[in-house]
Amino acid sequence: MSEMGLETEINDHSIKRLVDHFYGKVIEDDLLGPVFRNAIGESLDDWGDHLATMYRFWSSVMLTTGRYKGNPVKAHMELVDQVEPHFFEHWLTLWTEASEEVFVPDLAIAFQKKAKSIAQSLSFMMFERFMPDTLSARPA
Ligand code: HEM
C-alpha cells in the first residue's frame, strides 16, 4: 500500500478491492446500472456470485492463475438487445476511474489496457464492430 492508500501490488486482496469498488459504481450508474441489476439483482446483496466470478476472472487475467472458468462471450451475447457499442466506452470510463482510485498509476494502467482489449473483443463479437472510438479511427 502506498502512502496515499493506493495498492502497490496485484494480489487477491487488491483485486477484490478493485472489483468491489468498480461494481459499487456500476450498480448506481444511470446507463449500466439497469442492465446489470436486471441480469443479477437489484441490491448488492444479490451480487455475491457475480463478484466472486469477477475476482476469479481478474486473477486469471492479471496473475494468470487460471482460476476463471467461464464463457464471457456467451454471457454478453445474451445482453445484445440491452447494450450498444458506446456502453463499452462508458464501462471503460468507470473502470479507469475505479482502477485509479485503488491502484498506483502503473498498475491502474495495466488493468485498463487488459480491460480495453477485452472490451474491444466483446464489442466486436456482439456487434461485429468495435467501440466508437476505434471505429472512427478505421476506414469504413
Ligand atoms: C457494456 C459493457 C458491459 C456490460 C453491460 C456487461 C454486463 C454483464 C452482465 C450483466 C454480466 C452478468 C451475466 C449474468 O450473470 O447473468 C456480466 C458478466 C461478466 N462480464 Fe460483463 N459487461 C460489460 C463489459 C465487460 C467487460 C469489458 C469485461 C471484461 C473486461 C466483462 C467481463 C465479464 C465477465 C468475465 C463476466 C462473467 C461471465 C461468466 O462467466 O458468467 N464485462 N457482464
Question: How would you summarize the topology of this molecule?
Answer:
Elements: H1 12-28, H2 33-40, H3 48-63, H4 72-77, H5 85-102, H6 105-127, H7 132-137
Concise description?
The chain is mainly alpha-helical.
CATH topology, which one? Globin-like
CATH class: Mainly Alpha
Mean pLDDT equals: 92
Quick one: overall form?
Answer: globular
Q: What is the radius of gyration?
A: 15 Å
Explain what you see.
By secondary structure, the protein is mostly helical. It has one domain (12-137): Globins (Globin-like, Orthogonal Bundle), CATH 1.10.490.10. It has helices at residues 12-28, 33-40, 48-63, 72-77, 85-102, 105-127, 132-137. Protoporphyrin IX containing FE binds at residues 32, 35-36, 39-40, 50, 53, 57, 70-72, 75-76, 79, 83, 87-88, 91, 115, 118-119, 122.
Features:
140 residues, mainly alpha, Globin-like, disordered C terminus
